[in-house]
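Colleagues,

For the teaching module next term, I've prepared a clean inverse folding example: a structure given as tokens, and then the sequence designed for it. I'd like students to try predicting residues themselves before seeing the answer, so please don't circulate the second half yet.
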């Protein structure tokens, strides 16, 4: 059976990149797949988090999932820490993955910065936990932004190595020639990598210190307008063809955002706005962004007020996720040779 898994960290500042790169896809996929959508709070603590904020942010991301149209009855919506099998499988996979593989991960290098010796072990191990998140459900498809492509490749490598290392035992336990499917990344569309509004060479991130670098899903119309107007651009008018965006990362980014929000291609957007100056284009982008995002923002606020409801959704989701995870973890224990 085909199964989708994806996660969003319970850190604040959920932004347009998370929405266009990930959550919009989650909503589409629920029509055709069995889907698990997870608030990955274990990942969040790879960098320091305030405990009160962390709990708030877990509810905030869950509210965003629901506000964007993810149906918690049809899908499994839950928070990672409530399903201990994620961490349990991660340990086994830690013994499969190689240190050299982790040392090559660009997200670790970016997030650890210059003082790598002082980064948490968890930050280095982040992609192994992510592999466990996916593989504990034997998920086949993973919708993510482009920044997670390398981690997905690692998850496939880990799955493959586990299948090879334990091949004979997998067979003996009745699972044929492979236990874990190799998960396929689903990375597509005009906004798989939304860039910072301040620097077209850096991705839009929750962890960027500047709030002007991103449009948050919690921003009101005035904040969106201010941020888009202040967004970095170059002095030329927009090109009328897509290849004219080459070497113009900020222009490319704004056109990509416009395209994604309006469900059009970049070429189509340029056929309308080619030759326009940025002030004209930016005001159209503000109107479009406000029209698309304000209903979601309003719905998020309404859902956020009912913490009891959010907590019930997450508890129900965790119970259903755990039923699948426990069965797969038991199989892993048998395959690896743990006595139970
Ligand atoms: P952080 O900077 O703290 O890692 P983040 O913005 O990357 O935060 P995550 O919770 O790590 O947010 O990512 C959630 C999902 O959003 C992932 O699928 C990720 O690939 C996607 N995503 C994150 N940033 C972008 C972006 N700028 N464009 C498109 N997708 C993105
Ligand atoms: Mg991230």
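(Answer key — instructors only)
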């Amino acid at each position: 059976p085909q199964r989708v898994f994806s996660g969003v960290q319970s850190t604040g500042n959920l932004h347009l990149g998370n929405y266009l790169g990930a959550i919009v896809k989650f909503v589409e996929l629920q029509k055709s797949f069995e889907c698990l959508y997870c608030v990955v709070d274990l990942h969040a603590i790879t960098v320091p988090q305030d405990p009160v904020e962390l709990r708030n942010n877990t509810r905030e991301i869950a509210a965003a999932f629901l506000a964007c149209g993810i149906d918690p009855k049809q899908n499994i919506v839950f928070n990672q820490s409530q399903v201990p099998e994620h961490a349990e499988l991660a340990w086994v996979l830690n013994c499969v993955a190689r240190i050299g593989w982790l040392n090559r991960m660009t997200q670790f290098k970016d997030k650890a910065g210059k003082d790598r010796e002082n980064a948490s072990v968890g930050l280095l191990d982040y992609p192994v936990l992510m592999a466990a998140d996916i593989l504990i459900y034997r998920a086949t498809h993973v919708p993510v932004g482009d920044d997670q492509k390398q981690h997905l490749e690692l998850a496939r490598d880990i799955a493959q190595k586990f299948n090879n290392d334990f091949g004979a035992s997998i067979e003996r336990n009745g699972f044929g020639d492979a236990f874990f499917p190799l998960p396929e990344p689903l990375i597509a569309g005009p906004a798989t990598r939304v860039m910072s509004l301040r620097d077209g060479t850096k991705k839009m991130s929750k962890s960027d210190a500047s709030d002007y670098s991103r449009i948050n899903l919690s921003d009101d119309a005035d904040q969106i307008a201010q941020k888009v107007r202040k967004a970095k651009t170059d002095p030329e008018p927009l090109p009328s063809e897509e290849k004219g965006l080459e070497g113009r990362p900020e222009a490319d980014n704004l056109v990509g955002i416009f395209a994604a929000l309006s469900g059009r291609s970049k070429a189509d957007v340029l056929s309308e706005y080619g030759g326009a100056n940025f002030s004209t284009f930016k005001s159209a982008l503000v109107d479009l962004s406000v029209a698309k995002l304000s209903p979601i923002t309003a719905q998020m606020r309404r859902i956020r007020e009912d913490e009891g409801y959010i907590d019930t959704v997450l508890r129900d989701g965790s119970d259903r996720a755990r039923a699948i995870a426990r069965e797969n973890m038991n199989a892993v224990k048998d395959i690896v040779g743990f006595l139970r």
